[in-house]
């Protein structure tokens, strides 16, 4: 059978490999001049290839619906099998304390991962065509007949696997247009949505660029004192225009949803206890260490660099002793620790997300075969599906597993 795989990222590489191993005459079409461009930049160039631990735990990182859909694929081609595949190709990996799996720290380690995959593709007989952008699909339910390439070339096929990824980082080749083609074929799609992206703020603090808030909780609420909508424990880092870092990336999807519905306010809790409890802690400190400077007390939680400005905005002198703090000053200090205000977000960019939310609705796809329901010869895998996991190697694993399943099920 002539199989065409569109998209040479993590999912498409796996799909093409497995289809070729199944004895099919397989061609992999990639718009970029080389394969795996997103793989090469992932994990800051170190490529957080997957996540360690049992498959059940990897699945638990996804939303319920996504986990249910991914279960058959992830058991068919597990995180351990990804690691083992790379090891056989000479790429050793290691697992960090937080479960994230990387190739051994060597210069160009992400490029070594792609080179390993290229050599697997070569041995299995896949024809790889890079620098070829697919511009459309030809056919109607229940069969596709061909893909149309930019420049009017037509490539007929017996089976087509779409692995064109999401819509973020368009400069890496993922422009998201294929989702529109699937919609035009009558399939249910969820519009692209930013996820794992930095969050720009209304009140940016460019002078704080590079400053980190560590080990606390980034919280999203409907307003400064309103109902809490979501929270994520982790570090954040200030950028010129807002915040980035694990906590900001993880919360970016809910933040954008709340912003679009008109009510989103962000704060950071250096301590998860209620403000009243912290006020009590401060009262105790006033008794135990009356001569301690308020700045020193605050520095137990806040980064040193912002203690001064925080005290100033609360109208408290830097050298003020704990014993001289008024009730209002105590309340204000406690609030800085339990709900440091970051303010309202500006629109979160789809383009800067590590993944894009949205994609082909999972209900349209058979979770065991990755074949699109109601179609005889169309499969979809990877980020083009409505799948978006957290930071930690989960998204690449989802792409590897669904790509593997799509290729095996041709
Ligand atoms: C900066 C960054 C860092 C990341 N770090 C990590 C990480 O460390 N760990 C992790 O798990 N995930 C990470 N991710 C997410 C992860 O890279 C993706 O979820 C994953 O690559 C998706 O794989 P995919 O094969 O579905 O799509 P992609 O890898 O995006 O591949 C899709 C390919 O299809 C091609 N294509 C698109 N349209 C066409 C067309 N019309 N014709 C021909 N070709 C086309 C594109 O050029 C692209 O090469 C990161 C993402 C980014 C942007």
List keywords for this structure.
single chain; binds flavin-adenine dinucleotide; elongated; 4-stranded antiparallel β-sheet; 5-stranded parallel β-sheet; alpha+beta; FAD/NAD(P)-binding domain; 410 residues
Ligand inventory: flavin-adenine dinucleotide
User: For this structure, what is the CATH class of the largest domain?
Assistant: Alpha Beta
Q: In which order are the strands of the major sheet placed?
A: 6-2-1-10-21
The CATH topology of the largest domain is: FAD/NAD(P)-binding domain
Biggest beta sheet attributes: 5 strands, parallel
Class by helix and strand content? alpha+beta
N/C terminus separation: 9 Å
Low-confidence stretches: none
- State mean pLDDT (0 to 100 scale): 96
Count the domains: 2
CATH architecture of the largest domain: 3-Layer(bba) Sandwich
Specify Rg, calculated over alpha carbons: 25 Å
- What's the number of helices? 13
* CATH homologous superfamily label of the largest domain: FAD/NAD(P)-binding domain
Q: What is the overall shape?
A: elongated
- The percent of residues in helical segments reads 25-40%
